[in-house]
Every structure is written in structure tokens, then in C-alpha cells.
Amino acid sequence: MKNIAKKSNTMYLLNKYKLNANKRYGQNFIVDLNTIKKIVENTSIDKDTCVIEIGPGLGALSEQLGYKAGKVICYEIDERLKPVLNESLGEFDNIEVIYQDFLKVDLKKLIDTLDYDKVCVVANLPYYITSDLLESMITSNSGLSFICAMIQKEVAEKLVHKHTPLSYMIESIGSIDIKMNISRHVFMPEPHVDSSIIEIQINQPYDDKLTKILKASFTQKRKTIYNNLKGLFNEDTKNILEKENILLTLRPEQLSIDDYMKLIKYL
Ligand code: SAM
Fold this sequence. Notes:
This protein is an alpha/beta fold and 267 residues long. It has twelve helices and nine strands. The chain has a seven-stranded mixed beta sheet, with helices on both faces. The protein has a two-stranded antiparallel sheet with strand order 1-8. α4 links the parallel β3 and β4.
């Protein structure tokens, strides 16, 4: 089907297959072709790129990715969408849909089997598991080159402007930018919040020890870094922090990523 993202085409598909958006799976479909085209035009994908899409929904974004990328592999959790996607994406021989929970996919294993040098993720993420999905991809060491994701605007701003465990994880492997904001009015059903497109560039491997340090450091956000990390290392925490010039009285979000990376070697 051409131009799946048009509202009339979305309505046609939903009516024909007697489907309604399932809130449980965070289904908010984009019903604006220009928005989808703008998202795809702004990503650096070409015929040598394999794109992994999480949650194709009715196929609106997948279709436009299919025109630009060499291959698109979509993971969809909702099997009710099988007949819809068979119809909407059936004519694309470079788009494959796998009906599986993306959180259960071994991304490294998948990417190792692909015959593409450049593999990225482009997705309009289901809001209920945005952080879990981002964390699993960032920590996967799977060879992804970038993640372009639509997420809630507030969450995007927090990731870019504030320090959270996830923002430190991102900083440790590369960079994050907000590429554009997307109004809630282009979705069906319309969510209560606006969205943003973020792009995470992945330049270096992830060190799993960072997760351990961050988990301990943010156990109690209002406590000092010293109190949160006390007892984590074999060596005395006070000595370590002093040796690394990290003030004992800082809150976990006041440390830099370099501070956290320096602490890793003591684990
Ligand atoms: N890509 C479509 C679009 O932009 O219109 C739909 C996006 S909708 C926000 C999120 C999609 O992710 C839904 O199709 C939903 O069923 C799917 N989804 C939710 N949880 C998932 C999971 N764990 N694994 C794979 N897909 C999931």
C-alpha cells in the first residue's frame, strides 16, 4: 500500500480488520505523511543500511524506511497486526516483519547474522517501555551505529539536559541530540503529551560495570555519593573518592561521566 500514514489509509486498515489501538502496547499511530517523511529524510540511511524498526504498527514508518534503506527488519509484539501488515507492506521484498517482543531479542546475535556494515534502529517507541528499550540497546554492544527514536518530549528533554542513570549510559557510549519535536495532533489516538525525535550516536562499547556503579549511586537520589557507594568496593570508598578528586558530599547527579568511568576500575 502507498502512503500508509495518510489518515484515510489508517482508517481503512483499522476498519477492514476491525482493530482498535491497544493501549497496553502503547499504540499511537502516526497519521501524517509529512511527519513520517521528515523523520526518514533526517536520518542518514541509504541502500547500504539495514534498519531495525521496533513496533511497525500499521506499517506507516516501515513503508518510508523501505524506500530508503537496503533492508528493514520490524519487530511487532501484537500478532493481531499480522493480516494488516501483510496487506500494507506485502509488496516490499526488503521489509521483514517478525512478531516478537523486542525486549526478548538478542540484538548482538541478530546483527552478527546480517550482511550489512551499517545497522541502525529507527522507531516510534511505545511509551510504556521507552527507557527499557533504550537501555537494552545501549548496553547491547551489538554494533548498532545509531538509534533514531520518537519518545515523549519530556523524557527526551530530561535525557539531554539532566543527569539520570540512562543519560550517563548514553554519554558513556556516544552522544544524544533532539532532532525535532512532533505535535501530539499527528497521532491516532492522540496522546496527552507531545513527542521528540532523538538521535543517539554510538561511538564506543558499553562497559557493564557502569550499570553496577550507577545502580548503587542512585539507590537513594537524595543521599550523597559517599553514602550510596559505601561498602560497594573492596577498598575504602572514602579513599577512592578522595583519590579521584570526587567530593564526598556530591549528589549522584552532580558527578560527571568521567567521574563514574574512573570509579569503574575499583569494582
Ligand atoms: N510505528 C507505528 C507508527 O509510527 O505509527 C506504531 C508506533 S506505536 C507508538 C508502538 C508500536 O510498538 C505498536 O505497534 C506496538 O504494538 C508495538 N510494541 C509495543 N511493545 C512492543 C514490544 N515489546 N516489542 C515490539 N513491538 C512493541
